Structure formats: structure tokens, C-alpha cells
Amino acid sequence: MEPLTWTGSLGIVLNPFLGIVTVLFLVSLVAQTVGGLFAPAVTLQANPDGTLQTRGGVLGILELAMKYLLVAIVGGVAAYIVIPLFIPYGSAGIVGEISKRFLPVWIALVLTYSLSIKYKRRLGLYGKLFDSTVGMIGFGLVMFWVFTAFFVGVFDMIATHDYLSQVSGLKNKVPGVPVPEGTAGLTPHYLLGGDNLARDVFSRVVSGSVFVIAIAPLATIFAFMVGITLGLPAGYYSGRLDTTLSFIANLILAFPVILLFYLLVTPEIVLTGIPSYMAAFLFVFPLIFFGVLLNSRYYTQPAKRTAIMVPVLGILGWLYLSIINQPGTVIDFLPAWFDLFDISILVVFVSVVFVNAPTVFRIVRGLTLDLRTRDYVAAAQTRGEGAWYIMLWEILPNARGPLIVDFCLRIGYTTILLGTLGFFGLGLSSESPDWGSTINEGRKLLLVFAHPALPPAIALMSLVLGLNLLADGLREESLKD
Amino acid sequence: MGLFILRRLGVMFLTALCLTFIVFWLTNLAPNLEKLAKTQGNARMSDDAVVSWLANRGYAQPLPVKYAQWLGVAPGYVIEGSDGQVRGRCIDPGQPVGEAPSFCGILQGDWGFSTVAKENVSEVLPQRLANTGKLMFWVMMVMVPGALIIGVLAGMREGSRTDRSLSTVSIVSTATPEYVSGVVFIALFATNTFGMQWFKGSASSAVQDATFENFFLPVMTIALYGMGYIARMTRASMAEVMTAQYIRTARLKGVSFPKIVLKHALRNALIAPFTVIMLQIPWLLNGVVIVETLFTYQGFGWELVRAASNNDIEMLLGVSVISVFVVLLTQLISDIGYVFLNPRIRIS
Q1: What are the DSSP calls for B137-161, one per residue?
Q2: Which one of B183, B305, B309 has the shortest CB-CB distance to A446?
Q3: ipTM over 0.85
Q4: Do A258 and B191 touch (CB under 8 A)?
């Protein structure tokens, strides 16, 4: 097989086109930014013929030109993605083949977007997201990786080779290198080259997304449960409880994160069982949260309360016991048939939750301090509602806006933290395909072979960027009401 | 005000005490000590040998006693080992037992001995701190003016195209952690892959002699991540100031736009970013660790990684004492500075 070029025959036309358009766009962007500093503010200008014009002159033309150039760029990029789907293998180069591999993701994205935009008026805050360009771009980036993780993790679709199998002769080979005849795999090339153990970089990157998409949101949810359960009473009662909890939160926040990781995420610490105890402590908070949440609402109707609480707490309790119970560690008392799953990276999970929880605590506490002086809280107090009812059913729903925005940002931050752990080789096996570990593997030979380290770095950045843009869009839209 | 500072200092010392105790406890756990004995003594030590090795060097004492000795509030141990040699915490090699002082801890200015560097912690750490200080100085020189300019330009006309493009730039920079931007920078500018080999991918020579060639990439890597956040805060603060009544008054009086921005708005808009910049310093500490590891620059962060991966207890404690004080001092300075910059706030 011939090695693949980057864009194949498609590039003969598209590359010069996209190049020229991009250069023009950048030039006009700079001209506009510089010009915008000296130009007068946007004013309405009445023309002699009775029409109105917002901004005439050079800047107006530039603005119009930039709009069309941007459309041309987007069209060019879309052509790289769409055209290869209809032409035979290899003729669209590496970019085209990668686009083909992501076909299920494209279909899922198109479906999500067309359905969401069609029904956006009925979908509340989620629907409003599709009114903001920034929010849509962010949502698109996030969903791209969510769908990738879904199709790789559940259906084993996108990856071309096994992310662990090594093929001799492909060590550190450049992108588009053909694999030897008879190698197992869906494409006869390593699309993004081989790493320093001759594994397929492309397959490792898409497999790595499963790890991040599975762990980061879950860890953030746990951190939020801990932060909310402790932050609400701290803000509502103030006094000594607040002082103590705030002191502990500040204590954890004063720790340099990496020092904390180096102290907590080592095989020696796992031996002592500290992560298991921390897990037992931190993961009990969702149970407390849901228990108090339901009890404070339904305690006046004991029959209904019991009917709701028993199944909810039963399932959560089972999950809790399964998570903290690990064969071979200090907490190992469940029979194997009762233990649902084993998390081999419990220590990573725990330390990420532990680092995030104090910040969430501070945010929730601050919001509660602000909201508890509101009239609806006073009304609830006059009605004689219990303290926990007021916190969970009056204050918390009204704090949801900033919390949702922070949730998106925090998933991004958790992704960065997981990458940091991988980067320092802490807690994860060196074979793990997660992006941090792959970057760490790639950086060792970075000065000689740059291609193994770049794809995971760009993947991680695009996911975090997507989450930040999504948070920005959500903030913008929630401020509009 | 005096009482406020005093109380904050009190909390600070309490926090530092708690944190160093946690680090002390974690590094003195049995598996960590066993690893220490095996790396320092002999990798194939038997369990008995490990126990006696640790006992001879005072590690077998109860945790609070060891911590008090490290602090300098309890007399250092003097142990006649099972091998007949007398070792003491305060006895330097070759020193007669009688001449050694009985107390030697942080309070006496003795930071202990680094088992990896084979030097006193108080000799290693200042060098590392000086190197990191040099790095941080240049990071600040790049990051602060850059972030403020971006933030002010974006915030002075909220919603304009300049604002939108600069805000996108700052979001992109906050979404790029150091290990990503560092790797991308090295691949782009320090290798021949893209034909732009302008800088060096390693900053180890910058310790002696920092040049543009070997220092630019590490400085930019750290500065970029912090820049976006400060720029966004500056933008928010600037946008808020620009909607204030006195700005409108100035406009109605006919003051020119550049003059409004420079003379009227800027001063008030820079109060919030000051706090953010001070609070950003602890976050930069993370970036320093990553960048110093990536670019092999022998500073504070590099020492942290080396000490942590070898369980170098006293070095780790020294590192955590310093980083905790950096974090808490910047918090204190930002609080006090905020009061000075904003005369409307008074702390009773």
C-alpha cells in the first residue's frame, strides 16, 4: 500500500482555496481590530435617500467581507468532511479517512442539532442554547467527544486498530503509514502514525475519550454533591459551623494540587487504604443529599415518603457499597455476586473529587449567603418549613443558574486535572489510552517525533474549549431572562 | 485594620501548621518509610533490616514526637543504633555528640537534610526558588500587561466585534492547560516538523544564562494559561465601569473616547483585576510544576516533583511550607490591597 498523504486528491483543489481564504480572513480580522480602535462607535447614519445605515465606509465593507470569508472557510472545512464520505478509500487522504471513521458521530450530531433546533422553544434553557452561536459551537465540540466516546465505548466503532496492539516496524512512523499485510485492523494505514511502542495513535486518542467522558462528569457530580450538602448549611446557619467548614475548605485549597496528587496517588498510599476511607467518606454524600432532599419534602406524608425513599436509597446504597468495595483493599467485605463493579482507578477518582469539592462548597456557600435574605425564604420560614426544606427546595433551585454554568466549567477543569495526573504518570497505568498519559508518553521523544503527542493534546484542548464555550453560552442565555 | 491583619496572620499560621502536619503524616506512613529505607539503604533489605534501619534513624518514634522535632519544639532524638553507631537529628556527620544543639527544627532555622540532593534543604531550596523567581518575573512581565490590554480593549466597547474576537482568544487560552500548550509549542517551534525551529525545547541552560531562545517558550506556556482568566476578569470589570453614571456624564460633556477610557475608566476598572492577579499566583504554581518538568528547568516545581517521587520527606515539607505561605500571603495581600485601592470598603 502507498502511504496516505494528508488530503489526497481532494487537496489539489481545496488546499489552495482554503489557504487563500484563511489568509484573507486573517488580514481583514487584523485590519478590522486595529481599525475598530480608531473608528467612532457604531452609529445610525441617515442616508440622503431616507434609508438608515449602521456603519458605512471601509469598516462596513470589511465587516461584510469577513462574513463571507468566514462562510467560505466553514464551507471549505465542511467540504473536507463531507466529500470524502462519497469517494473511495484513500483518495481523500488522511483527513478524509478520519472523517469517514467519524461517520456515526456526524450522523448523531446532525440528528441532535436538527431535532434541537426544531423544538428549541419547548426545551427550556437547553433550547435557548441554540440561540447563541458560541453556545452552539461549544455544545458541538462537547457532543462530538461524547458521541465519539459512546460509539467507541459501547459499539467499538470508530477506532481502526486495537489501541494496545503493537505492530512491528511502525514505531514512531509518520501519519498515513501503511501497516504490513495481514495485520488486524479496519484500515490498511495508521491514520495518525504510530507511537513509540508502535501502536496506532488515532485509535488511542479516540479510545482515550471514553476514559475522560466517563470519569470527568461523574467526578464533577460527586464534587457537587459534597459541595452542596456542606455548603448549604454553612451558608444558611453561618456561625461556628461555617467557620469550621470554611477553614477546612481553605486548608484543602491552600494545598498545591500537584503536591496533593503526588502525596495521595501513589501505590504506597493505596496500600495504606487511605483512598478507600476517603471514598467511603466522600461518596456517602449523594446518599445524604437524596435522603434529606426527599425526607424534607415528604415527611408530612409518611406513607408516600417511605414508598419513594426506600427504592431510591436502596439503589444508591447498593451503588455506594459497590463503589467503595474493592477486592484487595481495606474495604472488602461484600460477596462477589453483590459487588456490581470494580473501579481500578478509585484513587484517581477520589482525589479529583477531593480537589474539586472545596471550590464547589465555597460557591454554594456564597450563593446561599446571598439568597437566604430573600423574601421567599422569609415566607417559607413564616410558614414554618424546616431548615432543610428551605435550603434544598427554596434556595437550591434559585441558585441553579450559576451552578449549571460552574458545572460545565468544572467538568473542563476536571478534564484538565485528569490530564495532569496522566501527565505525571500518577495513578494510571502507562498503557492507559487516556489523553494525559498519551501526552506524557509522547513528550519523551517530542523533539524527534512530534506526531504522537499532538493529537491527544489537541483532543483534550478541544473538549475543554467546548465546555468553556458551552458555559459561556449558557451564562449569556440565562442572563437574558 | 491592624486587628484584621493580625487575625489573618493567626489563621495563616494555623493553616500552615495543619498542612505541614498532613504532609508529615502522609510522608511518614509505613509503606512510604519502607520505600525510603529501600531506596536509601539497600533495595533488597529484609523486613527486619528495614525496621532496624528506620529505628536507627529516628523514624520509628511516634508521629507527634517526630513532628515536634521537625518543628523544633521538642529536643531532637539521639539514638544509639543496633549497629552501635550513635545518630542524632541535630548531629551533623563527623560532629561529636556532646557539641550538637538539642533543638533543631524549622523554628531554629534548620530545614533538615534532603535525602535525594544529599544536601541541606536550606541550601537547595533558595537556589530553586531563585530560578523559579526568575521564571515567574518574566511570566508576570508578559502575562499582566498582555491580559490587562486584552481585557481593557475588549471591555471598553462591550458587544463589539473587537470584544467578541478578544473574548474568544481569552476563552481559548483558559481552555489550554500548560501541558497541552507546552507540547504544542515545542512541536511547532522547537522541532523541525513544521519548519519553524526558532526556539529550544529545553530550558535547562536558562538556569545559568537565560536567553530569548531558551526562555521564551516556558514563559509563554505559563503566561498563556493565566492570561485568559485575568483578561476576562478585566473585561467584566471594564464593561461594568463603562456603564457607570460618571462615564455617561463625561461622554455627555463631550470628552473624547480615548480620554474617557484612559483617564476616567481605567483606574476604577483595574481594582478587580488586581485581586485576581494576586489570587492567580497560587494557580501559577501548578503551571510552574508542569512547565519546569516539561522543559527540565531546575526550579521549585522541578524540585517538588523530584522530592515527591522519591519520598524525600524533609525536602517535601520545606516545599509545602513555602508553597502554603505563598498561597496564604497572596490572599492576604490581595485583601489588604483591595481595601487600599477601593476607599469605599472599610474593614471594621
Answers
A1: HHHHHHHHHHHHHHHHHHHHTTTSH
A2: B183
A3: yes
A4: no
